[in-house]
Amino acid sequence: MRAADIADDLTTVLVTEEQIHARLAELGQQVTEDYDGKELVLVGVLKGAVMVMADFMRALPKHVTMDWMAVSSYGASTKSSGVVQIRKDLDIDLADKHVLIVEDIIDSGLTLAWLLENFESRGAASIEVLALLRKPDAMKVEINSRYVGFDIPSDFVVGYGLDYDERYRNLRDVAVLAPHVYS
Ligand code: 5GP
Ligand code: MG
Ligand code: MG
Q1: What is the ipTM of this complex?
Q2: Where does the UniProt annotation locate this protein (predicted)?
């Protein structure tokens, strides 16, 4: 669905599907240059990163592999608990691999900080982060995210994989959720 289909639930469209695709193509080029001659493993964080992974992966003109991890820190609330729990671990061994974590959004940064530490302990050759969205004003810990799609304000957003209580993931654009939906 597009933002116009559920206009009552949204206040502002921040990033359109077209803008996302264009930006992912740019990041794909950058990643291709940076990982020239190296094997790359993309690790997506379920479920929010499914759309970013699908579109970003296809923007790459070389072989890559993909794996997924499911963690939880949010539930049906709109604020990070800071408590991270593994719900589904990786299938592959990260030892000596060049890993690029693919994330939907960096909000407080707590989830990624935890994941980075966890992946480092598995002996990866390198670990970088690609995040479609980042909220600079909401970050509680410094995250060295090499590839960022868009910096956005600290409002709660939905769409392009991002949910509120498991809904809105199939919205094609990224939009600010109207407060009346969750208050
Ligand atoms: P953190 O606060 O740890 O950086 O964010 C953890 C996770 O919370 C993100 O990966 C994302 O799934 C979710 N999250 C953070 N901000 C938002 C937001 O504005 N909208 C939605 N739908 N999820 C968010
Ligand atoms: Mg996420
Ligand atoms: Mg969520």
Answers
A1: 0.95
A2: Cytoplasm
